[in-house]
Amino acid sequence: MHLLLGKRVLRGKSGRYTIAKHIRDTVWLANNQAEETVIIKSVLGHPRVENERDILKRFQNSTSCLRPLLDEIEDLPKPTAILKFVSRGILEALSTIHEGRYSIDIKPDNIFVNYTKKYLDSDVRFSEVQLGDLGGTCAIDSKWATSGTPLGAPMWRSPEMIMDTPWGTPTDIWSFGAMLIYLIYAGYFNLFDPTTVPYDYEEYSLEDLKQQFRYFGPWPGKYEEIASPETVHAIMWIMQEIPKSDTTPFSLVSEKEVRKEDKQFIMEIMKMD
């Protein structure tokens, strides 16, 4: 099986291309079928790149002194269909694990897919999707869960796990939502990954929590009843540190970015309750 975000093969009018490396925002290195290195640029949402494509198509056959456009990638399978297929498989696996009163580490690196045999020649991309790497799976009554021990990478953790409070199966639903947002935006963009602190710094988790608050806050008042004094103090500090004017509610995301139905679903599962 392949990692969900592992090997990517694109189909052009003149051949197929395997993505090798993401260079920056709209640019990737790839290998063609002759194992030659090519550059792939995305025009989606990038007028300058779209204009470059149109200019090359108009003038490149008139001179050899312009770097030519070699091929155009054909339309990919509909992202919504892919997301639904992947989400359904993940939720089915989660349901099974949760029935046994266990929590699992949800992140893109742990999602594996099988391509259909004809995925390069049809709109059908995956034949199955599976959760893997269960090494971080814990019973919800284990010492790690009941003591609030953080597990997994901070950017996929739920607020309660980041704050070292007892956690259970709902933490997986938050992680699933975070991963779903990641897949919708693509381009290796993570909504909760702070740009102000390196990943290996102690403050990274706190900055990650602040990102969660910016997009999905505030916390409900019941936190004062169920959280420790230290946790309540941390929550109050974050709410003072980030006034309402500095928040960016996910509910205000435009339909151009996220479909209305998808946004409503995400808002339902990403409640900080």
UniProtKB/TrEMBL annotation:
- Show where the Protein kinase domain sits: 1-273
Which terms does the record give in the GO molecular function aspect? ATP binding; protein kinase activity
Database matches in InterPro entries: Kinase-like_dom_sf, Plant_MAPKKK, Prot_kinase_dom
Q: Which GO biological process annotations does it have?
A: signal transduction
A Pfam family? Pkinase
Top-level taxon of the source organism: Eukaryota
SUPFAM superfamilies tied to this protein? Protein kinase-like (PK-like) (SSF56112)
Q: PANTHER family from the xrefs? A: CCR4-NOT TRANSCRIPTIONAL COMPLEX SUBUNIT CAF120-RELATED, MITOGEN-ACTIVATED PROTEIN KINASE KINASE KINASE 19
Name this polypeptide is given:
Protein kinase domain-containing protein
